[in-house]
From TrEMBL:
InterPro entries: AB_hydrolase_fold (IPR029058), Hydrolase_4 (IPR022742). It comes from Acidomonas methanolica NBRC 104435. This is Hydrolase alpha/beta. The keyword Ribonucleoprotein does not apply. Transmembrane segments: none annotated. SUPFAM superfamilies: alpha/beta-Hydrolases. GO terms for molecular function: hydrolase activity.
């Protein structure tokens, strides 16, 4: 997984990027938890999702947002971090100009950033949100949400309580053409320390299912 440095809106950003052996492979961008609470691209759940996309044949990147690791700049309350994510996406699309499929995956604060990016980039066709902080951030901007995705919650998560996430899921599921694959790991807290393999398995199952459905739909056309 080669290290990459790419231009962000507030300086250079540090990432790790795996380029698929498959021609025009789908792309995935993975976003880490809150930078002021120790969140980096090497977080266990972030890394696990990165490896899952790699296993599925994607070209995939994870990166440190501004002020984290060797990335330049300073924490910007979420606004700048959304711009960082867009810059990472731009870099991947520049390297993979013919790829037609793009997924976004985020954990905790990264889930919030990822969903913000989803609303700004219509080419994103799927998403994974692990422990989105639904009680701390207003996800009302997901109206309408452009597509369905996978949302994962921990039953013992005190930082992103499951009832708040379930309320968000229920709201999204009322929208036209949106179906959220919602999974709750009853014994998981916000760290998901013992559940990285379960997160990976859920991601791989969901993404494989959705890619197969789209292939069938294209074949039917």
């Amino acid at each position: 997984m080669p290290e990459v440095m790419f231009a962000g809106p507030d300086g250079r950003l540090e990432g790790r990027y795996h380029h698929s052996d498959e021609a025009n492979a789908p792309l995935a961008l993975v976003l880490h938890p809150h930078p002021l609470h120790g969140g980096t691209m090497n977080n266990r759940i972030t890394y696990s999702m990165y490896r899952s996309f790699e296993k599925l044949g994607f070209s995939v990147m994870r990166y440190n947002s501004r002020g984290v690791g060797r990335s330049q700049g300073r924490y910007d309350g979420g606004i700048g971090e959304i711009s960082d994510a867009a810059a990472a996406l731009d870099w991947m699309q520049m390297v993979n100009p013919n790829s037609s499929t793009l997924w976004i995956a985020g954990y905790s604060f990264g889930a919030f950033v990822g969903m913000q990016l989803l609303m700004r980039r219509p080419e994103i066709s799927g998403w994974i949100s692990v422990a989105p902080p639904a009680n701390d951030y207003d996800f009302g901007f997901l109206a309408p949400c452009p597509c369905g995705g996978l949302m994962i919650a921990g039953g013992r998560d005190e930082l992103a309580p499951e009832p708040g996430i379930r309320k968000l899921v229920d709201k999204l599921n009322t929208q036209k053409n949106v179906t959220v694959d919602y999974r709750v790991f009853d014994d998981a807290d916000h760290i998901f320390a013992q559940h990285a393999e379960q997160v990976s398995a859920a991601l791989e199952e969901h993404v494989t299912t959705m890619l197969a459905r789209r292939s069938l739909a294209l074949a039917a056309d």
